[in-house]
Design a protein that fits this description.
The protein is of the alpha+beta class. The protein is 54% helix and 9% strand. The strands form 2 sheets. Strands 1-2-3-4-6-5 form a 6-stranded antiparallel β-sheet, covered by helices on one side. Residues 10-273 form the Protein kinase domain.
């Protein structure tokens, strides 16, 4: 997009994992000095009064959608042949980037993401809205929670939409009913139903856990056919750590017939809560499957035989047993003295193992394992059990200081996560610590790291001795370290300003003084209050004075 302004927005740089194909830009609202994400549509043949009215109605409806798991839409507008929708800018890593970087996610992380998305879908479907394009690119994991991006009311029917044909990856995520009804452009002929979102959630979770899509194919036609006919291997058959209850839920979400999928996002939420509850029992997947204890029953005899094989329980061939001439002992095996004595010894060993307290080193190892998961559940469990126990039992041990540091860091992350939800939903700020953090975050969001750091330093100075604000002060120190590291390198805004200054210098060299002055003036107007960018803005102001 060549223009640098779009209505009240100053366009900065492209967003997305693949900027070259993205139509979403980072921008700043000039009057509000607020960073946003703006999706731009070029529709020279769709800018009829009727089409504009439909898009305006759509963004008015989008503005009413408010949920912490959904990026908020602030509205939209028109500029010549372009139209745009402005969304809340969510900072963080997309789920696609996480999967690409790690290969796949742990089932615990996937479960955390699934619960967040299911909650957002429950709200959306309750409002009569279907997302219609759930995929890892449109999920950003910020803090501990996933956020859905790019919400539309009429994603496929509006003239203001992407004109690129769907890729093989996008077609692989479409439900079979959409493939069957797709028009010539590959998009669904009818508006998607809520069941399509549930199918897309199943595809997303399958890919997150296994690192691959549930359907294969080299060509577009092959993928379309496989979506309708191919039965993928279960996630648990690829990743043995995946609980059978999670495995069965994902496979039900991927049912070809919409009627066989869960009836609603609410039902999916309940099923995910049941997965978490049963997973906490720590009983092995194979044990549950073979014994029939799982609530998601394994109905196939083949599946039960596979589970028994995992447990080392082969099927006995009675024909292979040779008859013996000896008269068998009439005492049943479990009443034999050797069995009773051995059982008693094993029981005593088990009681000793359970009763024997964990060592300091083992407590730290358990805590490190939970902290490495980096989920809300795992961090809370690490704080409640191994870290607190380590401090109580070994207050003067070599790991006590480390344990206290980890507890403080967990409390900081929880504080910042809860504050982000309050800010996002305009909930009341309850104390001075939260207010100062909110003000500092506003400076940081606008790229003014120096003012943000000053605000955090003032918080440490003013509230540092008050025990009621201990967590808020620790969070301020945490943010100072993060911002100083970020400020050490040149920001995206600084790079953009340098590029614009070079462009203006070239225009001046070509004797296009008016055009060059426009650039310098816009930089001063937009970034004049940003202390981090002051040296560059001073250059623009000097150029204006020299070329009046």
């Amino acid at each position: 997009m060549p223009r640098s302004r779009l209505g009240p927005l100053a366009i900065e740089s492209k967003l997305g994992d693949h900027p070259s194909t993205s139509s979403v830009w980072r921008a700043i609202h000039v009057q509000l000095k607020k960073s946003i994400a703006v999706k731009v549509f070029s529709a020279p043949f769709g800018s009829t009064p009727e089409a504009r009215r439909l898009l305006a109605d759509e963004w008015e409806r989008l503005k009413t959608i408010s949920h912490p798991g959904i990026a908020k839409c602030f509205g939209g507008g028109f500029e010549e042949t372009d139209a745009y929708l402005a969304y809340e800018l969510i900072e963080g890593e997309t789920l696609s980037s996480q999967i690409e970087r790690a290969g796949r996610l742990s089932w615990e992380n996937a479960l955390e993401i699934a619960q967040g998305i299911a909650d957002a879908l429950e709200y959306l479907h309750g409002q009569g809205v279907v997302h219609g394009a759930i995929c890892p690119d449109k999920v950003i994991v910020t803090g501990f929670a996933p956020v859905l991006l790019d919400l539309r009311i009429d994603r496929f029917g509006s003239p203001f939409r992407t004109t690129r044909p769907p890729s093989i990856d996008q077609v692989a995520r479409q439900p079979p009913e959409a493939i069957a009804e797709a028009g010539g452009n590959g998009n669904p002929a009818a508006p998607p139903q809520a069941s399509a979102d549930l199918y897309a959630l199943g595809v997303l979770l399958y890919q997150a856990i296994t690192g691959r899509l549930p359907v294969s194919g080299e060509t577009m036609q092959e993928v379309r056919e496989n979506v309708q006919s191919e039965s993928p291997p279960t996630p648990a058959s690829i990743v043995l750590q995946c609980p059978i209850w999670f495995d069965k839920l994902i496979m039900r979400l991927l049912e070809k017939d919409p009627a066989n999928r869960p009836p609603s996002a609410t039902a999916v939420k309940l099923a995910l809560a049941e997965v978490r509850k049963r997973a906490l029992s720590r009983t092995s997947v194979a044990e549950h499957t073979s014994s029939g204890f799982s609530p998601l029953q394994v109905t196939s005899q083949q599946d039960k035989d596979e589970a028994r094989t995992l447990l080392g329980r082969g099927v006995i061939d009675l024909n292979a047993i040779e008859p013996e001439d000896e008269v068998p002992d009439n005492v049943v095996w479990h009443d034999q003295p050797w069995f009773l004595l051995g059982g008693l010894v094993l029981l005593l060993m088990l009681l000793g193992y359970v009763a024997w307290p964990a060592s300091e080193a083992s407590l730290r190892a358990e805590a490190e394992k939970l902290i490495a998961m980096d989920t809300r559940k795992a961090l809370a469990e690490a704080e409640d059990e191994p870290l607190r126990e380590l401090l109580v039992r070994f207050p003067d041990g070599p790991h006590a200081e480390w344990a206290q540091l980890q507890i403080d860091l967990i409390n900081v992350k929880q504080f910042l996560h809860q504050l982000s939800i309050k800010i996002k939903n305009n909930l009341p700020i309850k104390n001075q610590g939260e207010l100062l953090h909110k003000q500092a975050q506003e400076f940081s969001a606008n790229g003014d790291f120096a003012k943000a750091i000053d605000k955090y330093h003032s918080m440490v100075t003013v509230l540092g001795d008050d025990p009621d604000y201990e967590t808020a002060v620790n969070a301020a120190r945490y943010q100072i370290a993060a911002l100083e590291e970020k400020a050490a390198g040149e920001s995206d805004a600084a790079k953009i300003i340098r590029a614009r200054l070079e462009e203006a210098d070239q225009l001046l060299a070509d004797n296009q003084v008016v055009e060059a002055r426009k650039i310098w003036y816009s930089l001063v107007e937009l970034y004049g209050d940003n202390s981090d960018l002051k040296p560059l803005i001073d250059i623009a102001q000097q150029r204006l004075m020299e070329n009046q």
